[in-house]
Specification:
- The chain is mainly α and 273 residues long.
- Helix 4 packs antiparallel against helix 5, helix 8 crosses helix 9 and helix 8 packs across helix 10.
- It has 13 helices and three strands.
- A hairpin with a 5-residue loop joins strand 1 and strand 2.
- The protein has a three-stranded antiparallel beta sheet with strand order 1-2-3.
- It folds into two domains: 140 residues, no CATH class; 127 residues, no CATH class.
- The radius of gyration is 21 Å and the shape is flat.
Length: 273
């Protein structure tokens, strides 16, 4: 009976969260605060464009978002400098490359913004607008400083031969730490409905971390929990099920089913390939 009640609670929570997330992708009215007038036109507030692209639910300004990205650049440069013993000149070049990624993205964002209608628009205009917005959402979600960025490409030219191996080791550790943090955070969320023993928790964490992650864990945390759920759903049942009691497995399976259902949305948002 307890397991059934928990399963019902899990199902309701996951269903609600999935509706909220999918609403961002399919333009549902409540989630993105679009108001449809009686004549079937849609009212677009200029701030909504910023909210959609940057998952900006707490309504940060564009300047605040840009400042956060600049802080990410400086933090990453400081970490690489410490790991690879960069010279001041190397640090400056790497910082300029990161700032170049930010500058390019925001120049393109502002150019896009000028082309998008605001106020009262038709549903056709709204759909066309969303098609233009979606690639920018994907780029931001995937991280401006990923492998395709100017910063990532420049670091190879900036480093001396004796620094390359240290950088590769640093980058591997960084990615693993981000992924482990996302995994632990997701499991902590799941434990609201599926309490685990310390042994179960560590076995589950170890099993997930052993997988070849197919998710992008970058500066945006809004979707990370759902990306980890999807990653868990790829693990063969024969490896996962022995960790849980029968009544616990019923609840765990509900989480895994939801992870599978989120695949299309996560791919659309740029969190998985």
């Amino acid at each position: 009976m307890i397991a059934k009640r928990r399963l019902c609670s899990v199902t309701k929570v996951l269903a609600l969260l999935a509706v909220i997330l999918c609403s961002c992708c399919t333009q549902q009215a409540d989630a993105i605060q679009v108001f449809i007038a009686q004549d079937n036109r849609i009212q677009i507030d200029p701030d909504q464009i910023v909210m959609w692209i940057f998952n900006n639910n707490n309504r940060r300004s564009v300047d605040q978002i840009r400042q956060e990205l600049e802080e990410i650049v400086q933090t990453r440069v400081d970490l690489i400098a410490h790991a690879c013993d960069l010279t001041p000149e190397q640090q400056q070049k790497l910082t300029l490359a990161g700032e170049g990624d930010i500058h390019r993205f925001f120049n393109e964002f502002q150019a896009l913004r000028r082309t998008l209608p605001t106020g009262s628009v038709t549903q056709q205009e709204y759909q066309e607008m969303w098609q233009k917005i979606q690639p920018f959402r994907q780029r931001y979600n995937a991280g401006l400083f990923n492998d395709d960025s100017l910063m990532a490409k420049s670091v190879r030219y900036i480093l001396q031969e004796n620094q390359v191996s240290r950088y590769e080791e640093f980058e591997q550790r960084r990615r693993q730490r981000y992924f482990e943090s996302a995994v632990r955070g997701t499991i902590a969320m799941m434990e609201d409905e599926l309490p685990l023993t310390a042994e179960q928790r560590e076995k589950l964490i170890k099993l997930v971390l052993e997988q070849k992650a197919d998710i992008r864990v970058q500066q945006t945390s809004y979707y990370q929990m759902y990306a980890v759920l999807y990653q868990m759903s790829l693990i063969p049942e024969g490896q996962l099920k022995p960790i849980f009691l029968d009544n616990e497995w019923v609840i765990m399976k509900a989480f895994l089913d939801r992870g599978r259902q989120l695949q299309a949305m996560l791919r659309q948002e740029g969190f998985i390939q």
